[in-house]
Design a protein that fits this description.
CATH architecture: Roll
Number of helices: 1
Organism: Massilia psychrophila
Pfam families: T6SS_HCP (PF05638)
Structural class: mainly beta
Distance between the termini: 32 Å
CATH superfamily: Hcp1-like
Oligomer: single chain
Radius of gyration: 18 Å
Strand content: over 45%
Order of helices and strands: EEEEEEHEEEEEE
Number of domains: 1
Number of strands: 12
Protein name: Type VI secretion system tube protein Hcp
InterPro entries: Hcp1-lik_sf, HSI-I_assembly_Hcp1, T6SS_Hcp
Protein backbone atom coordinates (compact mmCIF):
# COMPACT_ATOMS: atom_id res chain seq x y z
CA UNK A 1 0.00 0.00 0.00
CA UNK A 2 1.43 3.37 -1.04
CA UNK A 3 -0.31 5.36 1.71
CA UNK A 4 -1.38 4.44 5.23
CA UNK A 5 -5.09 5.24 5.15
CA UNK A 6 -7.70 2.91 6.58
CA UNK A 7 -11.49 2.86 6.29
CA UNK A 8 -13.88 1.30 8.79
CA UNK A 9 -17.52 0.92 7.75
CA UNK A 10 -20.20 -0.36 10.11
CA UNK A 11 -21.03 -3.95 9.15
CA UNK A 12 -18.51 -4.26 6.28
CA UNK A 13 -15.22 -6.09 6.83
CA UNK A 14 -12.02 -5.40 4.91
CA UNK A 15 -8.69 -7.23 4.73
CA UNK A 16 -6.24 -4.97 6.53
CA UNK A 17 -3.71 -6.91 8.58
CA UNK A 18 -2.32 -3.75 10.25
CA UNK A 19 -2.25 -4.38 14.01
CA UNK A 20 -4.29 -1.23 14.76
CA UNK A 21 -6.70 -1.65 11.84
CA UNK A 22 -7.43 -5.36 11.52
CA UNK A 23 -10.50 -5.96 9.39
CA UNK A 24 -10.52 -2.38 8.09
CA UNK A 25 -10.32 -1.49 4.39
CA UNK A 26 -6.96 -0.29 3.04
CA UNK A 27 -7.35 2.88 0.97
CA UNK A 28 -5.12 3.78 -1.99
CA UNK A 29 -6.37 7.34 -2.55
CA UNK A 30 -8.90 9.79 -1.12
CA UNK A 31 -10.44 13.02 -2.38
CA UNK A 32 -13.15 15.29 -0.97
CA UNK A 33 -14.00 18.94 -0.46
CA UNK A 34 -16.46 21.61 0.59
CA UNK A 35 -17.75 24.41 -1.63
CA UNK A 36 -19.35 27.66 -0.52
CA UNK A 37 -21.43 28.63 -3.57
CA UNK A 38 -22.03 32.23 -4.44
CA UNK A 39 -25.46 33.35 -3.30
CA UNK A 40 -27.95 34.70 -5.83
CA UNK A 41 -28.22 37.81 -3.68
CA UNK A 42 -25.48 40.34 -3.02
CA UNK A 43 -24.79 42.35 0.09
CA UNK A 44 -25.61 46.06 0.11
CA UNK A 45 -21.86 46.68 0.22
CA UNK A 46 -21.41 44.79 -3.06
CA UNK A 47 -19.63 41.80 -1.54
CA UNK A 48 -20.43 38.13 -1.81
CA UNK A 49 -22.87 36.50 0.55
CA UNK A 50 -22.75 32.95 1.84
CA UNK A 51 -25.21 30.24 0.94
CA UNK A 52 -25.69 26.67 2.18
CA UNK A 53 -22.38 24.83 1.79
CA UNK A 54 -22.02 21.85 -0.53
CA UNK A 55 -20.02 18.85 0.64
CA UNK A 56 -18.59 17.01 -2.31
CA UNK A 57 -18.78 13.23 -2.54
CA UNK A 58 -15.92 11.64 -0.61
CA UNK A 59 -14.15 9.57 -3.27
CA UNK A 60 -11.83 6.68 -2.44
CA UNK A 61 -9.96 4.05 -4.39
CA UNK A 62 -8.89 0.68 -3.03
CA UNK A 63 -7.90 -2.73 -4.26
CA UNK A 64 -10.70 -5.28 -4.56
CA UNK A 65 -11.05 -7.21 -1.31
CA UNK A 66 -13.59 -8.94 0.96
CA UNK A 67 -15.55 -5.69 1.20
CA UNK A 68 -16.02 -5.22 -2.56
CA UNK A 69 -19.10 -7.44 -3.13
CA UNK A 70 -20.80 -6.07 0.00
CA UNK A 71 -20.07 -2.48 -1.04
CA UNK A 72 -21.60 -3.19 -4.47
CA UNK A 73 -24.65 -4.76 -2.82
CA UNK A 74 -25.05 -1.94 -0.28
CA UNK A 75 -24.88 0.66 -3.05
CA UNK A 76 -27.46 -1.29 -5.07
CA UNK A 77 -29.80 -1.41 -2.07
CA UNK A 78 -29.44 2.29 -1.31
CA UNK A 79 -28.91 1.30 2.31
CA UNK A 80 -27.78 3.96 4.78
CA UNK A 81 -24.75 2.97 6.86
CA UNK A 82 -24.81 4.41 10.41
CA UNK A 83 -21.08 5.26 10.63
CA UNK A 84 -17.80 5.15 8.77
CA UNK A 85 -14.34 6.34 9.76
CA UNK A 86 -11.11 7.12 7.92
CA UNK A 87 -7.77 7.14 9.75
CA UNK A 88 -4.64 8.63 8.17
CA UNK A 89 -1.34 7.37 9.56
CA UNK A 90 2.31 8.39 9.23
CA UNK A 91 5.55 7.34 10.85
CA UNK A 92 6.98 9.13 13.88
CA UNK A 93 10.71 9.66 14.44
CA UNK A 94 11.12 6.00 15.42
CA UNK A 95 9.18 4.63 12.46
CA UNK A 96 6.11 3.85 14.59
CA UNK A 97 2.77 4.65 12.91
CA UNK A 98 0.78 7.48 14.49
CA UNK A 99 -2.65 8.77 13.54
CA UNK A 100 -2.49 12.36 12.34
CA UNK A 101 -5.90 12.83 10.70
CA UNK A 102 -9.33 11.33 11.20
CA UNK A 103 -12.63 11.73 9.36
CA UNK A 104 -15.84 10.40 10.93
CA UNK A 105 -19.02 10.14 8.85
CA UNK A 106 -22.61 9.49 9.92
CA UNK A 107 -25.64 8.37 7.91
CA UNK A 108 -23.44 7.27 5.04
CA UNK A 109 -24.73 6.36 1.59
CA UNK A 110 -22.57 4.67 -1.03
CA UNK A 111 -23.30 7.04 -3.91
CA UNK A 112 -21.37 5.05 -6.49
CA UNK A 113 -18.91 2.20 -6.85
CA UNK A 114 -17.03 1.26 -9.99
CA UNK A 115 -14.58 -1.55 -10.56
CA UNK A 116 -11.75 -1.43 -13.04
CA UNK A 117 -8.78 -3.49 -14.08
CA UNK A 118 -6.21 -2.85 -16.78
CA UNK A 119 -3.21 -4.65 -18.17
CA UNK A 120 -0.49 -5.14 -15.60
CA UNK A 121 -2.69 -4.36 -12.60
CA UNK A 122 -5.32 -6.00 -10.45
CA UNK A 123 -8.98 -5.14 -9.93
CA UNK A 124 -9.62 -1.99 -7.93
CA UNK A 125 -12.69 -0.12 -6.70
CA UNK A 126 -13.55 3.57 -6.96
CA UNK A 127 -16.17 4.46 -4.36
CA UNK A 128 -18.11 7.64 -3.61
CA UNK A 129 -19.67 8.28 -0.20
CA UNK A 130 -22.30 10.84 0.79
CA UNK A 131 -23.19 11.56 4.41
CA UNK A 132 -25.31 13.76 6.67
CA UNK A 133 -22.67 14.55 9.29
CA UNK A 134 -18.89 14.78 9.20
CA UNK A 135 -16.21 15.40 11.82
CA UNK A 136 -12.55 16.10 11.11
CA UNK A 137 -9.67 15.89 13.58
CA UNK A 138 -6.01 16.71 13.02
CA UNK A 139 -3.38 15.67 15.58
CA UNK A 140 -0.12 17.57 15.46
CA UNK A 141 3.11 15.63 15.75
CA UNK A 142 6.12 17.23 17.44
CA UNK A 143 9.43 17.15 15.61
CA UNK A 144 10.93 14.86 18.26
CA UNK A 145 7.86 12.64 18.26
CA UNK A 146 4.77 12.56 20.42
CA UNK A 147 1.55 14.52 20.23
CA UNK A 148 1.61 18.29 19.98
CA UNK A 149 -2.07 19.10 20.33
CA UNK A 150 -4.99 18.77 17.98
CA UNK A 151 -7.79 20.65 16.30
CA UNK A 152 -11.23 19.45 15.31
CA UNK A 153 -14.22 20.59 13.31
CA UNK A 154 -17.39 19.19 11.91
CA UNK A 155 -20.58 19.88 10.01
CA UNK A 156 -24.12 18.56 10.26
CA UNK A 157 -25.53 18.79 6.75
CA UNK A 158 -29.07 17.95 7.86
CA UNK A 159 -29.19 20.89 10.30
CA UNK A 160 -26.74 23.10 8.35
CA UNK A 161 -24.66 23.86 11.44
CA UNK A 162 -21.42 22.93 13.19
CA UNK A 163 -21.32 19.40 14.53
Amino acid sequence: MAIDVYLQIDGIKGESADSSHQGWIEVNSAHWGVVQPRSATASTGGGHTAERCEHRTLSLTKLADLASPILMQTCSMGKTIPKAKLEFMRADGNGKPVKYYEVELENVLIANIEQQVSEGSILHDSIGFRFSKVKWKYSQQKIGGGAGGNTAGGWDLACNKCA
